[in-house]
Design goal:
424 residues; alpha/beta; Carbamate kinase; binds aspartic acid; binds magnesium ion
Length: 424
């Protein structure tokens, strides 16, 4: 069996959904699991809704709910015309969402988030599964909350692999038995705890779902269908001459995803590597183009790859009592970063100071600095950019440093990372 994953951009309108239908008809063979994200920008819209719910902003809540409902209802209209029967499921799911919103917010923001934001995937898969059946592409919709078992770290839930394997094999494996051409559809991004509370796997987590299912079913391969031609060596928005990486070993793909190449979710590759399942990244706009293939261990490409992380903060942490930076201080500092959920992207220590480049989020950052201030003095620069170049050479460095000042840098044989800001 094979796994296809389609993200929000590939299913944002009837036309886009028809394109996905064609891709499945023309590019799939044998048994297929189709993993689908929320439509268009619906996850962001649901996050706004969640915030309004949590802050009890009734007017905003109403307005945001109406927008989300309208978006799905109008796609349902486009897909099903005046066949009201087929639109019922969308109405039913929107009612369930409304019912969630009527509940008082709990103390646990992340729990509430998962109960609400998961509706993006519930709505998209229902619409698409119904539409494909209506168009004669027979399929069965599986609720991922009965497949993907997780523990209860809401918004970043960890997969319980044994239970998940058992469930996927039982349900999807059972469905595929004794036939060689069936289609199962399920939601990316969501799962459930043993108590059957909905969880999510982290933003952009649908790729990961595709990998989980492939792993548990020993899939032949996985294809992630994207709005870019495949994995590129740089973001084409900023590098017009970006080139496609045709074949990349797992290890290199993990590194690129880890440093922030946003084409594939970083957790996706490891499970596939463990079972040596090839991963294709292909364009849903040009489905017959070759795309990128991630497999094997041999690094053939030594093309420099550029990865930019914007909105970074560079901070130096210095103990107030002039003690050295050593294990005790580290454990205090790391504990605080973990507590506030701030991701460290780069770090370095000297005798009396510890320097960190991290993702910047104003609220969490301020809270972190307040806490650090009791033991340390803290200095920082905002609006920094973290640039990572794999397979660098001097020319590649010069090329990107134009108009930028380097505040901090770290080098290994294959990778250079620089924290840079604009030249004033
Ligand atoms: N819909 C979720 C998100 O936008 C999951 C995904 O797209 O992979 O984060
Ligand atoms: Mg999405």
């Amino acid at each position: 069996m094979r796994v296809f994953k389609f993200g929000g951009a590939s299913i944002s309108s009837k036309q886009a959904i028809d394109n996905v239908l064609d891709i499945i008809k023309n590019h799939a063979s044998g048994n297929l699991v189709v993993v689908i994200s929320a439509m268009g920008k619906m996850t962001n819209a649901l996050e706004v809704l969640m915030k309004a719910h949590h802050e009890n902003l009734k007017e905003n809540l109403k307005k945001q709910y109406a927008e989300i409902a309208q978006y799905h209802l109008s796609i349902a209209d486009d897909l099903f015309g005046d066949n009201d029967e087929l639109k019922k499921n969308t109405g039913y799911l929107l009612k369930q969402l409304d019912y969630q919103l009527e509940k008082e917010p709990t103390e646990n923001y992340d729990y509430d988030y998962d109960q609400i934001v998961s509706f993006g995937e519930l709505l998209s898969t229902q619409l698409i599964s119904d539409y494909f059946n209506y168009k004669g592409l027979k399929n069965k919709l599986f609720d991922a909350r009965f497949l993907i078992r997780t523990e209860d770290t809401y918004r970043e839930a960890r997969v319980e692999w044994d239970k998940t394997s058992e469930k996927v094999q039982q349900q999807i494996g059972g469905f595929f038995k004794n036939s060689d051409s069936k289609i199962a559809i399920t939601q990316g991004f969501i799962g459930a705890t043993a108590e059957h509370n909905t969880t999510t796997l982290g933003r952009e987590g649908s790729d990961y779902t595709a990998a989980i299912i492939a792993y548990t079913m020993d899939a032949k391969d996985v294809t992630i269908w994207k709005d870019v031609p495949g994995l590129l060596n740089a973001d084409p928005k900023y590098f017009p001459d970006a080139v496609l990486l045709n074949e990349i070993p797992y290890r290199e793909a993990i590194e690129l995803a880890f440093y922030g190449a946003s084409v594939i979710h970083p957790k996706t590759i490891k499970p596939l590597q463990n079972k040596q399942i090839p991963l294709y990244v292909k364009s849903f706009i040009n489905p017959s183009h070759e795309g990128s293939l991630i497999q094997g261990n041999l690094l053939q490409n030594t093309i420099p790859c550029y990865i930019f992380k914007r909105n970074q903060v560079l901070l130096s942490i210095i103990p107030k009592d002039f003690s050295f930076i050593e294990e005790e201080n580290f454990s205090l500092i790391f504990g605080l970063f973990a507590h506030f959920g701030i991701r460290i992207n780069l770090m370095q220590n000297s005798a009396i100071s510890f320097t960190v480049c991290a993702d910047y989020n104003p609220n969490q950052f301020q809270a972190l600095v307040d806490e650090l201030n009791t033991e340390f003095s803290v200095r920082y620069n905002l609006n920094m950019e973290l640039i990572t170049i794999r397979n660098y050479d001097d020319e590649t460095i010069d090329r990107i440093l134009n108009q930028r000042k380097v505040y901090f840098e770290q080098k290994s044989r294959s990778t250079i990372q620089m924290v840079v800001g604009k030249v004033k």
